[in-house]
Every structure is written in structure tokens, then in C-alpha cells.
Amino acid sequence: MNPGNPADHHANPGDDHGKHPRKLIFAPGDMEVSTPNDQTTPIQKLDLAATLAPANVSRLISEALRSETSTPNSVMEEQILSHPARAHQFVTNPPLTVSQMHPTNPLHQFHTWFRDPRLSASSAPETCTLATASLPLGRVSARVVYLKELDERGWVVYSNWGSRQGKGAQVFGTQTDADSILGAMPEPEDGDLSEGNKWAALTFNWGTTERQVRIEGLIEPLSREESELYWRTRERGSQIGAWASWQSKVLWSAEPASLIERRRKSLAQDVCPQVIPGDVDETDIDDGRALLEKRVREMEERFAGAEQIPLPPFWGGVRLVPESVEFWQGRRSRLHDRFRYVRVNGGGDSYIWRIQRLSP
Ligand SMILES: Cc1cc2nc3c(=O)[nH]c(=O)nc-3n(C[C@H](O)[C@H](O)[C@H](O)COP(=O)(O)O)c2cc1C
């Protein structure tokens, strides 16, 4: 095993799973494969075994604890490989040609696709993935967020940007008061926005219309006034929640050994109640949620008399100002249509959007 190779980090001693990791999901179509009758899950076995002698209890518990390692066996793999519809086909749309694309502005093109009547509100088409990267390592992280606004400059999302543990530090840097846990969001007119990595990407995937939009560009903070406007639309509970949460800070952690021991006791109680006294409730054990609830109570007290809860300094909107925007539409045989707008200098301070067709 090479400790420098991330692929080796999950290898167990004595097996070669580092090189040939066991499959947990084997796409495509493995969900359609029926489970043979004899494949009862370890938990079901445990229920059935509830009346067994205590001598068998520890073996049953070990099986239950191994449940997360259960994998498709070779019989299932054969069934999967013979499955008739192995690859999903994209068939919904007629071909996408450049004449259907907005000639000058990808934001208008995005607006047209976003407003497609086939996208229902219940499918939450505003759901997107925001990717950012740390400096200097270039380590990337991505998370789902909601698009809240599209304006003529770019795509706007709201979050907590003060946390030193989350995307805030990646985007706005870690320079902050050494003692403070949360840094304030910078104002757009702040002279020094150079810290951190402002490059980011936002991706939308709309299954119903078989379309994807990918935006890459630079993040800029909204002004406090702009963020304030959206903040006012949030219900009081969410405002309290924003104040209470040091987003992405670790609230609690444990080593696997102590968790397994805890689970062992809990399972033993089910199978063999006399092992653990009846008044011990495993769900009582604090896993960090209590600290968050305490913070919520503190914030409720702090703002008890306030008619309007103020916008936290670490919370607000950012705008992704695009450098490139790609529109992808699925087609049969993976021969999809892809058009990308790339921002190029148009002379002086102006810019124009060049349109390119990309190979699928
Ligand atoms: C459907 C969905 C919508 C979300 N919307 C937001 C959002 O608008 N803003 C936000 O900060 N986090 C949102 N989250 C939570 C983020 O995915 C993420 O957990 C959080 O922003 C912390 O990310 P970080 O640790 O990278 O800073 C959403 C999660 C889901 C599943």
C-alpha cells in the first residue's frame, strides 16, 4: 500500500480492494435486478434471530455491523450485464442548433431554458451545484445551493461566507481576526478582494428537459443592501438559524471504534435485552446537535425583543460573474448538442460573447 496514494487509504490489510475496490452500486440498471430470495439483509436476520440463544448473539451483531460492506455478488453482476436497457438514452428534444441560441447573451439564453414550461416548480429547477477550490492546494469542493436571482451581471446565491471551515475561506480567504470564528463578508467596494480564490463554477441539471448548464467565472459579493433585501424575505426561524449556525464547523466527532462499540451495545439490547439495562437509551447520547440547539436558544433570547432580525455580517449573497456558459442538451447515442459562450474582449472596456459548438 502506498500511503501517498488516496486510492489506497480505504484498503483493508489482507485484501487487494485498494486495487480492485468492491462495487457497491454497479450502473447501469442495477436497481432493476431483483434480490434473490435467500438474500435477506443482516438486519432481517437479526429480527428472526431474536429468540436465539445468547451464544449466537455476538455473531449476529458482527453480521449486522458488516451490513455496509454487502456488495453485488457475481450472480447479480451477470444479471446486470445481461440487462437489455443498459444505457440511458436522451430522446426528449429535437436537435439543438445555433439558431435556437440567443445570438449575443448567455444570460438571456439561460432565462429561456429556466422558464421552459416543462420544468415544474416542484422539481426545483433553481437547484444547482456550486464548486469552489482552495488555494494554494487547488483542492475542490462542491455543494448544492439554490439560485435566488439572475441579474444582468450573473447568477446570485446566498450563504454563510464567514465560516473558516467552509467555502467562505476558499472564496474570501482566511484573513480574519485570529480570535473570531466567523469573518465578516467583504463589501464589493472593499479594496482588498485579492485574498482567496474567486474562481467558481455553477452547474444546473434538469432531467425533465435533458439539459445541463455550466457556468464558470469569478465570484463577487453583493452589497449589504442587496443581501438585506433577500434576507427580509426569509422567515424568522431561518434568520435565527443563520445566526445560530457556524456553518460547516465541526459540532462533534468520534472515532469508529467508539461508534462500533456503541452500536454493538444498542444491537445487543434489541437481541438480548438483559445485556444492557433497560433505562439506557442510545438515542440520548449527544452527537453535537445539542450544541446547535443551545445556540438557537441563545439567538432566540438575543433577538427576543427585536421586530426585525438584522442581517448577520457573515451571511449574504454572492454573484457568479460568468467567463463562460455552456448549454448542453442530450441526444441519442451520446451525440449530445453543446454550445458554449466564451467572453472575449470587444475593444476597450467592452466584451462580447463568442459562441462555440463543443464535441459531445
Ligand atoms: C437542495 C439543497 C439546497 C441548498 N441550498 C443552499 C443554499 O442556498 N445556500 C447554502 O448556503 N447552502 C445550501 N444547501 C446546503 C449546502 O449544500 C452546504 O451543505 C452548505 O452550504 C455548506 O457548504 P460548505 O461546507 O461547502 O460551506 C443546500 C443543500 C441542498 C441539498
From TrEMBL:
Keyword ATP-binding annotated: no
Name of the protein described by the UniProt record: pyridoxal 5'-phosphate synthase
GO molecular function, one term: pyridoxamine phosphate oxidase activity
Ranges of biased composition (kind: Basic and acidic residues): 7-18
The enzyme's E.C. designation: 1.4.3.5
Cofactors required: FMN
Organism, as annotated: Aspergillus leporis
Enzyme class, broadest EC rank: oxidoreductase
GO biological process: pyridoxine biosynthetic process
InterPro entries: Pyridox_Oxase (IPR000659), Pyridox_Oxase_CS (IPR019740), Pyridoxamine_oxidase_dimer_C (IPR019576), Split_barrel_FMN-bd (IPR012349)
Family matches, as PANTHER family: PYRIDOXINE-5'-PHOSPHATE OXIDASE (PTHR10851:SF0), PYRIDOXINE-5-PHOSPHATE OXIDASE (PTHR10851)
